[in-house]
């Protein structure tokens, strides 16, 4: 339905402006010889308006029609709830497809069969088998008679990360396999350089001793290219994936520990052996058969005799069985480990008590004398006994930090730098900065055969939601204090969810907590609750976290939680005191005033500075249905980092839709409006006029909302999954912020300020405390598990 007359007038004015702009531009081109200055002149003429949201308070009932679209929307949501024939499969976030049937004889370590994976020159991967065997092993080998220190499990990354992309190469004769020249060909590097420049060895150059040291028996078990380190030169998308998978397969060290999260409280933990030994070689399957079928003659007679022994494996069933095992109890945080009493506070049953977390100044103090003391204690212990792998890594971290400073330390984290030019499938020009190169498994928006843009967006949402979910569940269980900052805090402000267009998740923590993370949990593989999904996340803490000066070598991030199935990660930075001067910008922009001049300040290693009252007390909130902390003072910090971020409802062709509480792309929104109301004709091509689309979205009627939901099952499903969360967040914002319209220079601007009444109004504070304590709890996942989506749902429901 077309818009009223004022929209037509506005269109006419817009056309006149465009015609004039074209005329002026042509004149500039005609009279100027400097094209660069012309382009800059046009850029400088662009105006970014700020919109008022007062019109959103108007009634939802459309006066121009007798149809009550509000009721029609309710009917749609009821239809989704019933979910006949699983039409709205995205709303069913419960874990499914948990069962896997395989021939168990193919995974025993004493089978001589050619079908045995021990004897094959290819890779098998299914997390359901891996997780079933490990959980069963823990159940039968943990307990009072076995100390935690004595129990270790074998490990091979090929059982935990999908490396089957290498099978195509492994299936070829040795002479026909791709070698390092193939990697070099698709890497931005001098093609005459030696292959050592790309940290690669040809399979044919490997000695029998090196092959054995890598954990293999023959050349045939390895790809033609063996990547042994990181090459910083840009590579094409598919080549970068191959580099990471080759490195994981051949050189990535085992994690130190496995931690299985448990939504019922506590964690199940086991140490990992240092040498590579996968399922097919370690005897894990042999032990499984012995533990579960030791008295079953029908099964025993089929083991290792060449016949098939098809068994069903279900990690969710195994996990439920583990939780019922009395002799194996989950590990719970001890009172003396709850450094700042966060765990105690969050498990308090008094709903009137404030969940705000106060932090002492000492949490941000980490002097060189403390580093020296820790180093000395570990050095003494090292002289008395062998250190554990974790202790030895922490010792070396202290040692190397003492030998370097922020100007000399080598960069620790390495990303999947991608070549953009010449790759038409990389339409969004993703340069790979937000993926760990080892676990990179494809760009989030990179064009994939058999995938639509909407399906890729769903994948992105799953990865980000599950990352946040599992970090904060882990952190709460271990009493580790952390909070949202930067982009995720801005995203939280808008709707309490993550941005679908930003894969950069930033978490901050006091330096004392960062050091505890490094000392106790570095190189830990955290496994998602197996009743919710099969996500696996590596905690990777940088070597130089003990240096708190500004890093000039790129070590601005102290630690990461890496999703090993995608390479996407959470950036974790510690805040501490340092000798770094506060940039004048913090004073000129009003972040610090006269009052803050003499206050103690804390910074990360990239020049983000804060005072204690800007950070604490931390406020308890939720991001995507996951309880999380946010800093004390929010609006001023966000306005400093993102000047229009709190008020501009559009970013890179994504629009915030107040009616839905969601960010949607322009492509998704087109179906809700008349094409004549948002498009303009430029040089015979129709384009979306950003300003018109913004106004249409902000002024969306119930009829247009209904039209949008009715036409797109994915949007309808997302709205159904998130509506309660976004509405809850709107209620929360009324406690935390004053959002008002102020007239300035003849226009109406939105002004967002932190609300301060909570500190002075006891009745309001009590109301807020009850609201938070009643509502902010770990909700069920709002997305389906990644493995389930990629392996089953996306292929089944693909939009052709």
From TrEMBL:
From which domain of life does this come?
Eukaryota
Asked whether the UniProt record includes Thylakoid among its keywords, one would answer no
User: What PANTHER family does this protein map onto?
Assistant: FUKUTIN-RELATED, RIBITOL-5-PHOSPHATE TRANSFERASE FKTN
Q: Which Pfam families match?
A: LicD (PF04991)
Keywords assigned by UniProt, alphabetized: Membrane, Transmembrane, Transmembrane helix
Descriptive protein name: LicD/FKTN/FKRP nucleotidyltransferase domain-containing protein
Q: How does it sit in the membrane?
A: Single-pass membrane protein
Give the classification, highest ranks.
Eukaryota, Fungi, Dikarya, Ascomycota, Saccharomycotina
Swiss-Prot/TrEMBL GO biological process terms: glycoprotein metabolic process
Sorted alphabetically, which InterPro entries does this protein's record hold? FKTN/MNN4/W02B3.4-1, LicD/FKTN/FKRP_NTP_transf
Which positions, given as ranges, span the membrane? Answer: 12-31
Residue stretches making up the LicD/FKTN/FKRP nucleotidyltransferase domain:
476-579
Places the protein is found: Membrane
A single GO CC term, please? membrane
């Amino acid at each position: 339905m077309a818009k009223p007359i004022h929209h037509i007038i506005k269109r006419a004015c817009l056309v006149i402006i465009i015609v004039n702009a074209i005329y002026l531009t042509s004149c500039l081109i005609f009279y100027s010889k400097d094209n660069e200055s012309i382009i800059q002149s046009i850029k400088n003429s662009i105006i970014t308006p700020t919109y008022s949201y007062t019109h959103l308070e108007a009634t939802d009932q459309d006066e121009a029609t007798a149809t009550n679209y509000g009721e029609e929307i309710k009917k749609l949501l009821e239809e989704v709830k019933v979910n006949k024939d699983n039409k709205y499969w995205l709303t069913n976030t419960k874990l499914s497809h948990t069962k896997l049937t395989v021939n168990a004889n193919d995974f025993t370590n004493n089978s001589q069969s050619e079908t045995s994976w021990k004897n094959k020159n290819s890779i098998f991967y299914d997390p359901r088998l891996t997780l079933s065997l490990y959980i069963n092993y823990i159940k039968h080998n943990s307990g009072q008679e076995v100390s935690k220190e004595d129990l270790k499990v074998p490990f091979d990354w090929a059982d935990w990360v999908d490396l089957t992309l290498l099978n195509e190469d492994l299936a070829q004769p040795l002479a026909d396999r791709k070698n390092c020249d193939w990697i070099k060909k698709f890497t931005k590097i001098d093609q005459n350089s030696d292959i050592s420049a790309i940290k690669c060895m040809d399979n044919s150059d490997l000695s029998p001793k090196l092959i054995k040291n890598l954990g293999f028996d023959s050349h045939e078990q390895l790809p033609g290219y063996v990547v042994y380190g990181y090459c910083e030169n840009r590579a094409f998308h598919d080549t970068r994936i191959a580099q990471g998978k080759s490195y994981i397969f051949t050189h990535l060290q085992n994690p130190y520990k496995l931690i299985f999260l448990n939504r019922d409280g506590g964690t199940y933990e086991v140490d990992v052996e240092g040498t590579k030994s996968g399922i097919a070689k370690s005897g894990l399957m042999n032990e499984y058969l012995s533990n579960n079928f030791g008295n079953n003659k029908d099964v025993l007679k089929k083991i290792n005799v060449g016949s098939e022994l098809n068994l069903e494996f279900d990690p969710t069933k195994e996990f439920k069985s583990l939780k019922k095992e009395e002799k194996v109890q989950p590990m719970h945080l001890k009172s003396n480990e709850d450094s700042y009493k966060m765990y105690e506070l969050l498990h308090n049953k008094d709903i009137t008590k404030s969940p705000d977390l106060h932090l002492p100044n000492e949490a941000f103090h980490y002097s060189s004398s403390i580093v020296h003391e820790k180093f000395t204690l570990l050095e003494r212990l090292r002289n008395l006994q062998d250190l554990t792998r974790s202790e030895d890594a922490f010792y070396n971290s202290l040692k190397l930090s003492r030998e370097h400073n922020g100007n000399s330390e080598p960069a620790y984290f390495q990303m999947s730098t991608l070549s953009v030019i010449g790759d038409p499938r990389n339409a969004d020009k993703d340069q790979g900065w937000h993926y760990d190169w080892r676990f990179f498994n494809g760009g989030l928006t990179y064009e994939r055969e058999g995938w639509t843009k909407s399906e890729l967006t769903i994948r992105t949402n799953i990865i980000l939601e599950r990352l946040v979910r599992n970090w904060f569940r882990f952190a709460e269980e271990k009493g580790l204090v952390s909070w949202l900052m930067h982009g995720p805090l801005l995203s939280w402000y808008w709707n309490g969810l993550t941005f679908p267009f930003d894969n950069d998740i930033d978490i901050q923590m006091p330096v004392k907590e960062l050091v505890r993370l490094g000392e106790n949990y570095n190189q830990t593989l955290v496994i998602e609750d197996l009743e919710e999904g099969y996500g696996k996340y590596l905690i990777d803490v940088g070597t130089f976290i003990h240096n708190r000066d500004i890093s000039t070598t790129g070590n601005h991030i102290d630690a990461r939680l890496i999703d090993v199935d995608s390479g996407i990660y959470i950036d974790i930075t510690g805040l501490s005191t340092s000798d770094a001067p506060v940039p004048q910008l913090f004073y000129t922009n009003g972040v610090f005033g006269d009052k803050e001049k003499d206050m103690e300040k804390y910074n990360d290693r990239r020049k983000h500075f804060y005072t204690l009252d800007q950070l604490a007390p931390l406020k308890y909130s939720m991001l995507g249905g996951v309880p999380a902390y946010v800093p004390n003072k929010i609006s001023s910090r966000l306005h400093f980092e993102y000047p229009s971020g709190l008020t501009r409802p559009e970013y890179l062709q994504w629009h915030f839709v107040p009616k839905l509480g969601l960010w949607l792309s322009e492509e998704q929104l087109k179906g809700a409006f008349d094409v004549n109301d948002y498009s303009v004709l430029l040089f015979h091509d129709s384009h979306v006029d950003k300003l018109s689309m913004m106004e249409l979205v902000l002024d969306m009627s119930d009829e247009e909302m209904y039209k949008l939901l009715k036409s797109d099952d994915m949007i309808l499903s997302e709205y159904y999954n998130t509506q309660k969360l976004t509405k809850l967040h709107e209620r929360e914002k009324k406690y935390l912020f004053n959002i008002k319209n102020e007239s300035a220079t003849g226009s109406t601007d939105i002004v967002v300020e932190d609300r301060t009444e909570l500190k002075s109004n006891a009745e309001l504070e009590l109301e807020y405390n009850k609201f938070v304590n009643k509502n902010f709890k770990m909700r069920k996942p709002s997305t389906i598990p990644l493995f389930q989506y990629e392996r089953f749902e996306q292929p089944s429901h693909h939009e052709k």
